[in-house]
Amino acid sequence: MIYEALQILKEQLERYLDDVGLGKIVVLENLALLDSGNDKADNLENKVVISLLNIEEESTLKNIPANKVVNNKAESYNPAVNVNLFFMVSANCDLYSNSLISISKTVEYFQGKKVFTAQNTVYNRSNVSMQELDDFKFIVELYTPGFEVWNHIWGTHGGRQLPSVIYKVQLLQVDRHKKQASTELITEVNGTLTDINS
């Protein structure tokens, strides 16, 4: 669900930026490639880049039991892993003013749409990864780190700072749906009760 969520956000943002006249300029890529000398760095030129920064487990939902009854059998599963994603949108446009406009329009888009569901979101369902995605809901919120954290983030991405913004995506569920055990249900108790005092 991690790739799927970021791909959906990429498609949605790209459609919006194209509608406001900036073109199809959004890519989902590792921003660290920008100053790496790698051939793929050319793909980031004059683009708005979405990069995953961090995955955080939502610890408040960690101990929810994952058992269910199917055909009069109790099935046991490992609990799903609930995660929050932190992603950065960076504008690497040819002109600094275009980068600022791109970031401004990005903030504008996510201000207008914070909740993404299968019902309110149009996405490329022909993508192989999306074919099993039937129902989803996640919320996108602006995340503002301090200057020291920003310094660390850009230091790990090569040092060159671009106009950018960070968002937190909550709450994604990662679940393999692998059955761990299956047991018969106790449906009745037989026997006779005796008074232990007699």
Largest sheet: 6 strands, mixed
> How many domains make up the 3D coordinates?
1
The helix tally amounts to 3
For the secondary structure, the number of strands is 9
Q: Average pLDDT value?
A: 85
Strand order of the largest sheet: 1-2-5-8-7-6
The helicity comes to 10-25%
Give the SSE order as H and E letters.
Answer: HEEEEEHEEHEE
Report how far the terminal alpha carbons are from each other.
62 Å
Derived from helix and strand composition plus strand pairing, the structural class reads alpha+beta
Shape: elongated
Strand-residue fraction?
A: 25-35%
The unreliable regions are none
Radius of gyration: 24 Å
What kind of assembly state do the chains in view correspond to? single chain
Organism: Draconibacterium orientale
Domain Pvc16 N-terminal: 7-187
InterPro entries: Pvc16_N (IPR025351)
Protein name: Pvc16 N-terminal domain-containing protein
Describe this structure as you would to a colleague.
- This protein is of the alpha+beta class and 198 residues long.
- The protein has one domain (2-176).
- It is 23% helix and 31% strand.
- The protein has a 6-stranded mixed beta sheet with strand order 1-2-5-8-7-6. Strands 3-4-9 form a 3-stranded antiparallel beta sheet, with no helix packed on it.
- The relative contact order is 0.21.
What is the topological layout?
Elements (H helix, E strand, L loop, with lengths): L1 H18 L6 E3 L18 E11 L9 E4 L2 E5 L3 E12 L3 H17 L2 E3 L19 E7 L3 H10 L7 E11 L4 E6 L14
What's this, in brief?
The protein has 198 residues and is an alpha+beta fold. The chain is built from three helices and nine strands; from the N terminus they run αβββββαββαββ.
